[in-house]
Amino acid sequence: MHSDGCWRWCTGGLMRRGGQGRSHVSNWVRPNRALQGKVERICWAWGLANSNAQLTMRLMKLMKPPTLGWLVRLGTVLGVCGAGLGWGQPEVKSIASSAGEPAAIKAAQPPRAKAPSRPHGRMEEMSPDELEEVLRDAPVAYVPLGTFEHHGWHLPVCFDGIKAHALCERVAQRTGGVVLPTFFYGTGGGHIGYKWTLIVPEAHIVPLIEATLDHLARQGFKVVVLLTGHYPLEQVNMVHRLAQAAQQRHPQVRFLGLAEPEVTTPQPGDRYGGDHAAKYETSIALALKPDWVHLERLTGGRDAAQVTLPTTPRTEASTHDPTHPLYAIHGQDPRKTASKALGEKLVEEIVSRLAQQVESALRQARALATPR
Ligand SMILES: [Zn+2]
């Protein structure tokens, strides 16, 4: 085996010499793929051995021992024969495959082994035939829910929805299934009246989600997941009720309605595995997409008249005071407590637990559908 430095030195000679030989030979023996491979390897090795031998010969000439010259020639012949018989094949193959083989020959090669994965994708980007494939192999639909809500100076205002969507996509990659467009209209929470926040009465939201759940059941999905990234009590209760009511209407389908802290474990010393734009949400954002997070923007001194609405509460020291760096945040200071490592742990927990629930629900739904 060559060392890395030696290998780079060798391939210089190869590309100059073996490459030309290969193209002529390829035309000649193309119909016979096995023979072509052998001959290509011999040409390649001839170029490699020649370039190495010539350089070695130049060094040997300085010493002029005639027997050394013959030893080098013997080594060249052995090297060429060895390459033709397949010695050192992996290295030859990897270089040859990058040397511009015709597309027809590439296409004839068997595809590389890939980890099996069930079909999944974003529903809005899929065609009817692709969706039928999902229904056949992984009839699971994910409905991510969020809202428009101030998430501190460091996170996007629709963070709950984009977080829920990204989590659903990760679960779908494991279980298969489709992820619906995010439903960005949510209810409840402590930020009503904040600029950039839109909280809608439950009565406006419920009919739309009910219609969506009925639609999914009618299309043939066996498991439907409602995951909300916005989780004040009003929203969580609404999601639970929507899932239970849909279950009554469609007994052949399994509906799961939950908020992400229902599948996280609080960190040591914490009572709850969630918050608002603080340690938990910021960590999850760092794990899902670091570009969403701008901790450096958690600075004070903003002009309240410019960044809030007249109705926005401004009484509390941090969460309601727009001049405070931690404005709108509920929970531990993310500058001191959030990390990508914690986020990755939380995301893995959420994704693996939810995937387990979905697999179990899918088994139940399929058992119900099997005629006895
Ligand atoms: Zn949030």
Structure, described:
This protein has 372 residues and is α/β, with parallel strands linked by helices. It folds into two domains: 4-108, no CATH class; 120-369, Creatininase (Rossmann fold). 53% of the residues lie in helices and 6% in strands. The chain contains 13 helices and five strands. It has a five-stranded parallel beta sheet with strand order 1-3-2-4-5. Helix 1 packs across helix 2 (33-61), helix 2 (33-61) runs antiparallel to helix 3 (66-84) and helix 10 packs across helix 13 (340-369). The longest helix has 30 residues, at 340-369. It is globular. Residues 1-53, 59-68 and 74-108 have low confidence and may be disordered. The structure holds zinc ion (ZN). Zinc ion (ZN) binds next to helix 7.
